[in-house]
């Protein structure tokens, strides 16, 4: 089994017992030692993939595994190349992924007058990619659960961390709109947005 983009290994460490050969990939350098510390006692190797100028695999999204060598690939919020996942899976192998869609918290972008990401990442888009690569989809789901902000500090903190939400976010540049949002929250108690999540389970034909 391979866990793509394991982060700090939090999810994988709760899926015990694991298959005899289990490993994880992680591209964000600060997460790598955290994941290794958490997963090493479980016999899981953490493989650093790509992220900075000093380390690169041949192609973004390429996986460092032999053809048809893996039974199960799991992926929570990590980007993937459908043909690469298909390549490393054995026939009948399974790919399970939960993804964050492009409509996540788009209400924030709209309120602040920021551009909405142009790339449309949805269940339909991901499903088409997997089917075109050679997967049979056997389970799928999509949901938009609420995401509540109770003060403007939480909004600013989120936007500073989640650089993909508003890629040009700076407090000074959005100050007027942030003050309007602060007033909205003070008046209504919350600012309500929605996450956009979807799930797919596919089998290599």
Describe this structure in words.
With 205 residues, this protein is an alpha/beta fold. It has a single domain, classed as Rossmann fold. The protein contains six helices and nine strands; from the N terminus they run ββαββαβααββααββ. The strands form two sheets. The protein has a seven-stranded mixed beta sheet with strand order 3-2-1-4-5-9-6, with helices on both faces. The protein is globular. The two termini are 18 Å apart. 24% of the residues are buried. Keywords: Methyltransferase, Transferase. It comes from Candidatus Sysuiplasma superficiale. This is SAM-dependent methyltransferase. One of its GO terms (molecular function) is methyltransferase activity.
